[in-house]
Amino acid sequence: MLADPTTTPADADALAAAVHPADPSAPQVSVLDLAVTRGDGIFETLDAIDGYGQALEPHLARLANSARLLDLPAPSLELYREGIRQAIEASGHPRLSVKLVLTRGVEGAGICTGWVYAEPVPDFSIARTEGVTVVTLDRGYKHDVAQTSPWLLQGAKTLSYAVNKSVYREAERRGADDVIFISSDGFVLEGPTSTVVLQFGTHLVTPSTDQGILAGTAQAAVFEFGEANGFTTEYRTVTPDELLAADTVWLASSVRQIVPVVAIDGTPRGFDTAVHTAALDYLLARRS
């Protein structure tokens, strides 16, 4: 737990002391905390391999941006860095999922609640090698929702995950593993917990983030891989028919890394095995 997640202690000793080890199986958060009663808060999840947090700075930048979108006090990124360091060190596990949380705290108290939690990563090897099936679902918003209705908080990573969990249950009812959201005016957006990346030969494409979708840290790493290996990259609007026309469609996320999509709405599709393997190796090799 973080003593005050929006205040940076004055020196290194105070910074270390502001991180309080806590038993995750014991009560730590008040039942009156707005994260519990309203889902009013934000989070980030990053992968840590061999003691190194992957894409640490982009995740911290995204945490700060989500706080801004929710009108939360700015998180102390120095304190979260220290919390991440201590959580990874305390675990000692070679592969970790590290979650950063900031809530508005108890209503009226004026103090936010924050913590960092690390746990071993599940085994995603089957999904990474054999792929996942997806269904496309209407998100219920037009693709320009971030511009027309910023109060809907599209593009913020919030604790309000009821919709995300609901769409996974819908995917299961339809016999699929995952979901790709489509805007109500017909553009590809993102997955509930992932970014969509498409490969067309030596060209990589992802939906642009001005459509109310989250900037993907794993997607950025896929583009880094591509640019280092002769691929061109592009952020733009994507239409659903391109999901079947692409050589490869990936779902990219911090902990699962990248998984190829092998069926969309019941229609099988292949993927470029050589490019997928090389890109996955690149992502897994990151140590910063």
TrEMBL record:
<dbReference type="GO" id="GO:0016829">
    <property type="term" value="F:lyase activity"/>
</dbReference>
<keyword id="KW-0456">Lyase</keyword>
<dbReference type="InterPro" id="IPR043131">
    <property type="entry name" value="BCAT-like_N"/>
</dbReference>
<dbReference type="InterPro" id="IPR043132">
    <property type="entry name" value="BCAT-like_C"/>
</dbReference>
<protein>
    <submittedName>
        <fullName>Aminodeoxychorismate lyase</fullName>
    </submittedName>
</protein>
<dbReference type="InterPro" id="IPR036038">
    <property type="entry name" value="Aminotransferase-like"/>
</dbReference>
<dbReference type="Pfam" id="PF01063">
    <property type="entry name" value="Aminotran_4"/>
</dbReference>
<dbReference type="InterPro" id="IPR001544">
    <property type="entry name" value="Aminotrans_IV"/>
</dbReference>
<dbReference type="GO" id="GO:0005829">
    <property type="term" value="C:cytosol"/>
</dbReference>
<dbReference type="GO" id="GO:0046394">
    <property type="term" value="P:carboxylic acid biosynthetic process"/>
</dbReference>
<comment type="similarity">
    <text>Belongs to the class-IV pyridoxal-phosphate-dependent aminotransferase family.</text>
</comment>
<dbReference type="InterPro" id="IPR050571">
    <property type="entry name" value="Class-IV_PLP-Dep_Aminotrnsfr"/>
</dbReference>
